[in-house]
Amino acid sequence: MSFFYQNNGEHLRLYTSVNNTFPSHLHRQAEMILVLEGGLSVTDGPGRYSLAPGQGILIFPNRLHSLYTAPEQGSRILLCIFEPDFCPHYRHYFQNYLPEDGSFDLKLLSRHSRSAAQALTALTEEYDRHEPIPAYLCNLAEGYLELLLADLFTSPAALPLQRQKSGENLELEQRVLLYLDRHFTEELSLDLLAKEFGVSRFHLSRLFSEKFQTTFPRYVNSRRLEYARELLAESNDSVTNIALDAGFGSSRSFFREFREAFHMTPNAYRRRHIRQAPRS
């Protein structure tokens, strides 16, 4: 799995996931996670949560978070990732507040929320998660999500929130991830990054090891590999060109890194995952 600033274009992503483990990342969308089976450990900012079936968490935009499934326990979860504008009535909560504790238990919410959670889970069976959600299902999902947010923000069992400070700056790790999301295909180094953010090379190296549990080169390679995977599945461009477009110095290094990460060659991945790419 990768760890980076996700910049998805869809207003809504809704799907179930099995045995999900996803290291530290953040994105501009809000994310609601509900455990359906097994157990899931989630970090959200400084908070750490162990979630059982029927429990979930609402993660606000641009919050550094991660997911971990213990192999001996397993998990099946519902993931709902959405733009704050998708449910406009609750946009101001995402813009002006942060949760003191974003976790929740469906048992403590209204029967309307419990029904909405079941309905959202059922919707995931009606379309291919790799394709855009049909408009009529988006409309249904918006209604169900509104019901859940009504409970989470306005009911007696609402999440404890604190108002964000006006003009509050993003933490260094968030700013670094945002920068790398814009520049990961370019030539990068810790020295360049240190100059960009006015901190020492050592400070940044420690940031990656302590906050992201990785090294700077592995981080950048992971972002490039994820981008290359998208290009392999969605375009007819040559593997060599994709390697260069993703920021790898040579196709040889790209093949080596790709095989190590995904246990197959780029060409094998393309044959297995190719979508109906436009012909040039």
Number of helices: 10
Radius of gyration: 20 Å
Overall mean pLDDT: 87
Helix content: 40-55%
Spatial order of strands in the largest sheet: 1-3-8-5-6
The H-and-E topology, N to C, reads as EEEEEEEEEHEEHHEHHHHHHH
Uncertain regions spanning at least 5 consecutive residues: 1-8, 276-280
Q: Choose one word for the global shape.
A: globular
Largest sheet: 5 strands, mixed
Fold and architecture overview:
This protein is of the alpha+beta class. 41% of the residues lie in helices and 21% in strands. It has helices at 91-96, 111-123, 135-154, 172-183, 190-197, 201-211, 216-234, 239-245, 251-262, 266-273, and strands spanning 5-6, 12-18, 22-27, 30-38, 40-44, 47-51, 55-59, 65-68, 75-82, 97-99, 103-105, 161-163.
Layout of helices and strands, plus pairs?
Blueprint (H helix, E strand, L loop, with lengths): L4 E2 L5 E7 L3 E6 L2 E9 L1 E5 L2 E5 L3 E5 L5 E4 L6 E8 L8 H6 E3 L3 E3 L5 H13 L11 H20 L6 E3 L8 H12 L6 H8 L3 H11 L4 H19 L4 H7 L5 H12 L3 H8 L7
Parallel strand pairs: 1-3
Antiparallel strand pairs: 2-9, 3-8, 4-7, 4-9, 5-6, 5-8, 7-11, 10-12
